[in-house]
Amino acid sequence: MSDESIFRSADMILVQFYIASEISRDCVSVLGEIGDVQFRDMNKNVNSFQRSFVKETRKFDDTERQLRYLESVIAKQQVPITTTSYDDMIRSSTRDLEGLANRNPPTTSQMDAMVEVTGKYEVNVRQMADTYDDLLSRQSDLLEHRTVLQGTRTFFDARLSLEVQHGNSGMNHIRLSSDVDEESIMIEESSDQPLMSQDAESMNNDNANNSEMNILGSNMSFISGTIDTDRFITLEKILWRSLRGNLYMNKVPIDEPITDPKTGEEHYRCIFVIFTHGVRLIGRCRKIVESLEGKLFEVSPDYSVYRRQLSEVNDKLMDLNSVLEHTRERLVLELKEIALEIERWKIQITKEKAVYSTMNLFDYDPTRRCLIAEGWLPKDDLSAVKSALRDVTERCGTDINTVVNVIPTNRTPPTFFRTNKFTSAFQSIVDAYGIASYQEVNPGLPAIVTFPFMFAIMFGDLGHGFLLFLAALTLVLKEKSIARMKNREEIFDMAYTGRYILLMMGLFSMYTGFMYNDLFSRSMTIFKSGWKWPSGFKEGESITATQSGVYPIGIDYAWHAAENSLLFANSYKMKLSILMGFIHMSYSLQFSLVNSWFFKSRIDIIGTYIPGFLFLHSIFGYLCVTIIYKWSVDWIGKDKVAPSLLNMLINMFLSPGHVDEPLYAGQGIVQVILLSIALVCVPWMLLYKPLALKRQNDVAIRLGYINVQGGAAAAAAGTLDSGNSGSISQVGGDDYSLLSTATDNLSAATMTSFIIEDYDELPEPFNFGDVMVNQVIFTIEFCLNSVSHTASYLRLWALSLAHNQLSAVLWSMTLQNSFTSFSKRGVLGCFVVFFLFGMWFVLTVAVLVCMEGTSAMLHSLRLHWVEAMSKHFKGEGYQYEPFSFHDILTIKQDEVNGNIQ
Length: 901
Prior knowledge:
Largest sheet: 5 strands, antiparallel
Oligomer: single chain
Number of strands: 14
Radius of gyration: 42 Å
Structural class: alpha+beta
Strand content: 5-15%
Helix content: 55-70%
Number of helices: 30
Shape: extended
Distance between the termini: 36 Å
């Protein structure tokens, strides 16, 4: 079982590496390919900016920034990237050591050349991209200028037609703001009446055309430009209040949106013309327009000047488009060269940065010119790691071998379970609650069966289970294509991650649905019924079926048509939930025995497991036996009323020895014995373990140690002989057991420094008061939880009943109603049946499968986390996180796909 490392976490060893500085990079790179070593930080007291390889990590940080910039420009220009994808690199960066010797990392000179090339590309692309963006901005300005010229021309053409009608030459008085002189300042200072007021008076004296003539015919200046449509109202209000109405405005909307060359966003803008008199007011208008991100363009009211301006703008656009096209061709050509290699560069830089970041955890020995590293490693992989490091030494052509020593330690190793894509999803259920302590029984293994089975008891329906199974099967068959999807939705990503859990939940739901004889709340007549209905009865008459046999498997479909079907289903499922709950808790309790036996903790076996086992089985085990016995007795044949088990259990505590409705002969004596056993187990569980630990601590003190932890420290330092080590180990029990004192030729200096460093991780000194308080809390919790947890399993019955009734109501309100009420109405009936079927199917998937399925899954999760795992699971470990290129590239791939939430 240790080879699989799924029932119990893998055996871990603390390994010390002495790596020569010349080959340190190659050795760490190979260890990253293997992905088996979780390195410890040997420089905890050193600032991160003062470590040995911070210069290299900063260099690769800068290179990653350059690559991100290049990738953004490539995406902006829509240049296809050659997919030397992370998937290929991930497949090559596996834990399999086959071909590892031929998987040579790039040399330092090659990496330096890559960094240099990346930097040059970034400079060139940035220059061309900035030039291209500037040209785009200039093009956008020219296009807007041309649009303004064309838009304002309609306004001045209308003005010209008015002049012709009135024989006026007022156009000569309209001047550009750039032509304003001191005379206009005098006019502005002498003007007391707003233009809008003048417009109003003109309208009273003449008509609308005369009004516009009066406004435009006066000695005024104007500005024109563009502004976002949604800001024009704001501009109008600000100008009105700032100029006190001394202005005349007009606008023309631009039909096509204008794209911002910097952000790529599209904005709808409009052309405006503002008339006012005086240089001060014109200057004020300019500042207000610019504050609202408007653009101003020069427009002449004179037609000949206008034609010249329009021609100049068109000529500039033609020249600019030619330059723009040539610039983009050069930029795209450069980007295509980069796109061929950028994925490979990103992967190599990611791996190289990870190598130097890991080397920053190592300690440098200047006298030996080597790096000293420590890390956790699965014991079974030690030989493979040594072999890979020897291959690196031979490949580099050096005579200095990498030294690998296994060192003893009192530190707690990390927890590592070897999982695959099927078991990893179930393991994540346990890890979400807590990481298993080192080498304790893994609850994730039985959860592969129990989690979907508990779900299926609550969700049991053959049809609903098939829909769930079909959806999960699709995710499983399409898992490779879905894994490459980018920006997956959070809920969909959760379903994809747990696709194998959903698959098992669907399979088990189909099984329990078959046992319940439920198919979308309808019964299936697969076998012959064991009940026979009488013939010759009248309509409305109450009849009783007679039993003619036994239905081969599952619940007889005759119960579905019976008046007391709900009463029967409630009784059956309620007792079934108690049985399943007891079995689930009972086998979980056995894992505590397995743990105690493995850790050689006799105290926990005698003081915790045995009284807990007797307490649970003397009460609830007895209840389960009576449930099965009650089912097996033909009470009708005996002409007796079946006794109530609930009353029996209550009276067992309130009136020991007294039985109102006997279930069997001698029941009172049996219940008194079982109750006495349960009562004895309480002080047994409460007192034995604290007193036994106190006695063992006293024994350790008599052997000459301060307490049992003093003996543990001496054993770790190697100062105890085998006899004393064995005696202290026996004294320590589970909580204070001593580790092996074997050393692998470590020097005294190394060992001494190691012990001093690790001394702070020894358990706290033994305190009888603390142990007693903890045991009191544990005993109270166990006794109360035995009752509450058993009652908690009644949720299996409650949710199963609710699911069945909701499914029946949905069927009767939709499909059954369509078949009975609209089956004989021709085309209308067909349409109604089709519509109600769609309604039934949508509600079935949305409510019964998705919502009810989620509810049942959460309840199953609670039953495992609380009711079952509390019987044995400590969950005080920490995750094994080795230095692995496979894991690093997988996370990088998720970041690229946008699937990290």
